[in-house]
Specification:
The protein is mostly helical. It contains 2 helices and no strands.
């Protein structure tokens, strides 16, 4: 599931939970609340769980976008192994 589809599902479940609570069907509202918490990757108390990312995520931190390198970026040159342990001379 993509992040957008998870958010849409959470919004739909939230509306359904509010309707169930207004109709005083608290068992259904509690079940929906737990399902929303599972989609958000949280425990029932609201604290985030480290071991349960949202469905569709491959691991921790997958909701964070990857920083892209600039187009003209090149890796730095590797140091010469022959001069790696020498001090720079003053001129």
């Amino acid at each position: 599931m993509s992040l957008a589809s998870i958010n849409r599902k959470i919004e739909a479940l939230t509306a359904e939970m509010q309707q169930a609570a207004a109709a005083e069907d608290f068992e259904t509202a509690a079940r929906l609340r737990n399902e929303i918490a599972a989609l958000k990757g949280e425990a029932a108390g609201g604290s985030p769980l480290v071991r349960q990312p949202p469905p569709g995520a491959m691991g921790l931190g997958t909701h964070i976008p990857v920083a892209q390198r600039p187009k003209d970026w090149r890796p730095p040159k590797k140091p010469d192994p022959m001069t790696r342990h020498t001090k720079a001379r003053k001129r």
